[in-house]
Amino acid sequence: MKSESVPPERSVLLTLQRATHATLQLLAAELVDLDLTASEINALANLADGRGRTVSQLGAAVGTRPTTLTSVLDRLERRGHITRGVRAGDRRSVLVELTDSGRAAAALIGRTLADVESRALAGLPAEAVAGYYAVLDALIEEGA
User: Fold this and answer.
1) HEC string for the chain
2) Do 40 and 75 meet the contact criterion of CB atoms below 8 Å apart?
3) InterPro entries annotated for this entry (predicted)?
4) 135 CB neighbour count, 10 Å cutoff
5) Whole-angstrom distance, CA of residue 57 vs CA of residue 109
6) Per-residue confidence (pLDDT) for residue 93, from 0 to 100
7) Cα separation values, 30 from 26, 81, 82, 98, 108, Å
8) In which band, very low, low, confident or very high, does the pLDDT at 27 lie, cut at 50, 70 and 90?
């Protein structure tokens, strides 16, 4: 596919950005009672499996630098959703873990993400979804 001949309305990257913004608005509306920013929702969603992560690991998972993530973690810690502590065996690494309220929020976020995804993809054939993942994988590889 020649990128120079693609009109903006058919650009994969611009369409991905539009879809991202639409999804963030939808999630903000559905999770309004949590009073969290999109970045906070993303961080909690990535911690939802209950495994603690270092700030570097979480930054890679959420797609941001650890220095940028720090303010998000500060807010989540003030709200009582996470704790930060020293990682066993490595005092230089900070381990981020969910608290009880963080686990509850992360569980709600996970259910909401699954519900939104299910509704959005319900009418699509499996081949279309597989193609979507192939495109995303190619974009991720390009950025790696």
Assistant:
1) CCHHHCCHHHCHHHHHHHHHHHHHHHHHHHCHHHCCCHHHHHHHHHHCCCCCEEHHHHHHHHCCCHHHHHHHHHHHHHCCCEEEEEECCEEEEEEEEECHHHHHHHHHHHHHHHHHHHHHHCCCCHHHHHHHHHHHHHHHHHHC
2) yes
3) HTH_MarR-typ, MarR/SlyA-like, Tscrpt_reg_MarR-type_CS, WH-like_DNA-bd_sf, WH_DNA-bd_sf
4) 11
5) 20
6) 83
7) 6, 19, 22, 22, 10
8) very high
Q: By the 8 A CB rule, do 54 and 87 touch?
A: yes
| CATH, domain range 3-143 | 1.10.10.10
- Residue of 99, 36, 94 whose CA lies nearest to 70: 94
Give me the pLDDT at residue 65, please.
86
Segment 21-35 shows an average pLDDT of 94
* Identity of residue 121: L
What does the domain layout of the chain look like in residue ranges? 3-143
